[in-house]
């Protein structure tokens, strides 16, 4: 999501409360682009990759800075590397 002035690790730790309750395996990656790439690249047959939080927004706000960033474009690029063309 857009952490703005919040500490991204604090946001992640809040989300992990539910995962820890069920001893769910997880990887923490603060860089959103790397996280999307990693999730898609490590997914196997029958897996589902859910990219949540940004939706249609083509930007990310970090502290006082807004940068061009689109989850969909990152996902498309990775999927093209696997031969998907849609």
SSE blueprint:
Blueprint: H1 8-21, H2 32-42, E1 59-62, E2 65-68, H3 71-81
Antiparallel strand pairs: 1-2
Can you describe what's shown?
42% of the residues lie in helices and 9% in strands. By secondary structure, it is mainly alpha-helical. It has one domain (8-81). Strands 1-2 form a two-stranded antiparallel ribbon. The longest helix is centred in the first third of the chain and has 14 residues, at 8-21. The two termini are 25 Å apart.
Question: What is this entry, summarized?
Answer:
The protein has 86 residues and is mainly alpha-helical. The chain has helices spanning 8-21, 32-42, 71-81; strands at residues 59-62, 65-68.
Descriptive key words:
2 strands, 42% helix, mainly alpha, 86 residues
Portion in beta strands: 5-15%
Query: What sequence of helices (H) and strands (E) makes up the elements?
Result: HHEEH
Quickly count the helices. 3
Rg over CA atoms? 14 Å
Give the count of structural domains: 1
- The helical percent reads 40-55%
Give a quick account of the main beta sheet: strands, pairing sense, barrel closure: 2 strands, antiparallel
Mean pLDDT: 88
Identify low-pLDDT runs.
none
Q: Tell me, what's the shape?
A: flat
SS-derived structural category:
mainly alpha
How many individual β-strands?
A: 2
């Amino acid at each position: 999501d857009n952490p703005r002035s919040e500490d991204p690790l604090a946001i992640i730790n809040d989300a992990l409360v539910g995962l820890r309750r069920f001893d769910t395996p997880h990887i923490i990656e603060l860089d959103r682009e790397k996280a999307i790439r990693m999730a898609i690249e490590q997914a196997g047959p029958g897996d589902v990759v859910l990219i949540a939080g940004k939706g249609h927004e083509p930007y990310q706000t970090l502290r006082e800075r807004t940068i061009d960033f689109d989850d969909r474009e990152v996902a498309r690029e990775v999927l093209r590397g696997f031969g998907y063309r849609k």
